[in-house]
């Protein structure tokens, strides 16, 4: 750590995804926690939403003695409803979960104050806006209560807020406790994601877009407003990659003060014999499910390919993945069996009873099951884009096909009813992963892949892809990662490039694969939090110095 940097004596970090696994930011925070704990040693406090009512949050451990005097005061004097304990991830940092629902009654007054003080326009709000912003308000109240109770006026205190959902928390702290240094990280601009998700050419016309105008056009005014105003008013504004920094400058009219890329924590990855055992077990499970679903034997040495992430059909390149796999299937050059898995959560109705029974009773299949492309029934089978595209391009999943494709639409938390394994416990069984993203501010999935020794294919529209290209060439899968050039207009060329990499991998021997695995591990080591945390320390320094100057 650079001794010249001013670091906080106490750090708050808040997000909708603290102890609440709903997306990629959970991975950012839960893996970063260990390194922050090593630096701050219980002087970092995470704040998350108490969305669990009377049930226990799955990775929260209550600790009665922790901040017990403040908790009593918070409840009795400040009328806050909080749970205090530790986040059950490596580092086990202190965590406060706050019940924000009581504050809904103050919504109108709070939103007016946000307009009056910071020109945040909530008038066109809909969807998850109110819930997110009222949670952010409750976070501000928690920080205010804690700060005054422990008389921290003479301490260096910083508060980091993640994503637009927490923007009003940052602004509340800025207004009511100006001595606290505020930081705001956008992991993806709400308007940039919306432009991309609405099939508009984000990159080709980036310099012509006006964020406010696009927010009106795409009915995103409230989210865009809180995000933009927060970026302008905090002491330090950060984002996770150079590609998103360009987006912020154009669409939020604010260049980030520093880019803070997302790292990974190596203690999530098994080692030695445990790695080999988990990999074998994952492959056995994946192939067994495939055989039961497809009604035919699968070569134990089949090449297992996967893509995963949030259900953003175009942004995550799910359409591109299916197109590329179809090219592999029909190119006539494939000699090895391939099973491609699309592990993307959708609106699941239930695990398939027929498939579940065959797995549990280990019934030898004699014919494929009905709709042999999917492991769980969906609520909207007819409208599901993934399933429709798989069927429309002509996949059959018959025994004679060299490449089969399987859609796994459940959230991989170990409770899905078919695989009953977590995402990492399935990832470790893959031979290659493909993330042909169109819109990907960072891209945790390819980083997780190389961290687990699995080579990956991504694009230069992903923050991780750009970072990887500064570290290796990005042109050769032997380095562990291929970074494909993707533009607004080269969809089919990207599919062709993916096909060629998959075909090349399918022909490699065990020794070559082992060398690639080692290179994956080497590359992942360069992206560990122990290296990337320095960007955050610089951000804390910038915020602290600005807050001190502002409060003179």
TrEMBL record:
Pfam families: Glycogen_syn
Keywords: Glycosyltransferase, Transferase
Domain of life assignment: Bacteria
EC number per UniProt: 2.4.-.-
GO molecular function terms noted in the UniProt entry: alpha-1,4-glucan glucosyltransferase (UDP-glucose donor) activity
Record-level GO BP terms: glycogen biosynthetic process
GO cellular component, one term: cytoplasm
Database matches in PANTHER family: GLYCOGEN [STARCH] SYNTHASE, GLYCOGEN SYNTHASE
Name this protein carries in UniProt: Glycosyltransferase
Organism: Candidatus Parabacteroides intestinigallinarum
């Amino acid at each position: 750590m650079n001794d010249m940097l001013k670091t906080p004596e106490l750090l708050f970090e808040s997000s909708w995804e603290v102890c609440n696994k709903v997306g990629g930011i959970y991975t950012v925070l839960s893996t970063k926690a260990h390194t922050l704990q090593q630096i701050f040693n219980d002087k970092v406090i995470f704040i998350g939403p108490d969305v669990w009512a009377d049930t226990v949050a799955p990775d929260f451990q209550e600790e009665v003695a922790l901040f017990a005097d403040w908790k009593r005061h918070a409840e009795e004097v400040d009328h806050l409803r909080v749970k205090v304990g530790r986040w059950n991830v490596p580092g086990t940092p202190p965590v406060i979960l706050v019940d924000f629902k009581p504050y809904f009654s103050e919504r109108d007054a709070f939103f007016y104050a946000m307009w009056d003080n910071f020109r945040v326009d909530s008038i066109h709000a809909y969807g998850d806006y109110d819930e997110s912003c009222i949670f952010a308000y409750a976070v501000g109240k928690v920080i205010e209560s804690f700060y005054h109770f422990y008389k921290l006026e003479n301490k260096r205190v910083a508060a980091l807020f993640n994503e637009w959902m927490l923007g009003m928390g940052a602004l509340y702290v800025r207004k009511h406790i100006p001595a606290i240094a505020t930081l705001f990280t956008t992991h993806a601009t709400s308007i940039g994601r919306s432009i991309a998700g609405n099939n508009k050419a984000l990159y080709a016309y980036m310099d012509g877009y006006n964020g406010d105008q696009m927010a009106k056009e795409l009915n995103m005014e409230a989210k865009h407003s809180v995000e933009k105003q927060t970026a302008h008013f905090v002491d330090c504004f950060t984002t996770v990659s150079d590609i998103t920094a360009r987006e912020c400058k154009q669409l939020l009219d604010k260049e980030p003060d520093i880019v803070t890329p997302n790292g990974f924590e190596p203690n999530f990855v098994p080692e030695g014999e445990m790695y080999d055992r988990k990999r074998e077990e994952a492959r056995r499970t994946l192939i067994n499910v495939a055989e039961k679903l497809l009604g035919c034997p699968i070569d134990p040495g089949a090449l297992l390919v996967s893509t995963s992430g949030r259900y953003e059909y175009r942004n995550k390149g799910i359409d591109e993945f299916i197109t590329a796999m179809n090219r592999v299937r029909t190119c006539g050059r494939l000699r090895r069996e391939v099973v491609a898995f699309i592990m993307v959560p959708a609106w699941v109705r239930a695990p398939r009873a027929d498939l579940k029974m065959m797995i549990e009773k280990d019934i030898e299949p004699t014919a494929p099951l009905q709709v042999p492309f999917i492991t769980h029934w969906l609520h909207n089978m007819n409208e599901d884009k993934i399933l429709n595209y798989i069927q429309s391009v002509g996949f059959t999943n018959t025994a004679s096909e060299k490449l089969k494709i399987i859609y796994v639409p459940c959230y991989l938390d170990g409770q899905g009813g078919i695989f009953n394994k977590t995402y990492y416990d399935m990832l470790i069984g893959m031979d290659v992963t493909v993330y042909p993203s169109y819109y990907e501010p960072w891209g945790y999935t390819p980083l997780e892949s190389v961290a687990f020794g699995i080579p990956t294919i991504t694009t230069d529209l992903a923050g991780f892809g750009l970072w990887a290209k500064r570290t290796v060439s990005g042109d050769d899968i032997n380095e562990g990662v291929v970074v494909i050039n993707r533009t607004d207009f080269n969809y089919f060329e990207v599919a062709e490039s993916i096909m060629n990499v998959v075909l090349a991998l399918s022909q490699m021997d065990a020794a070559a694969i082992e060398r690639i695995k080692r290179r994956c591990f080497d590359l992942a080591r360069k992206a560990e939090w122990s290296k990337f945390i320095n960007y955050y320390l610089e951000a804390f320094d910038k915020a602290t110095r600005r807050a001190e100057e502002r409060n003179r």
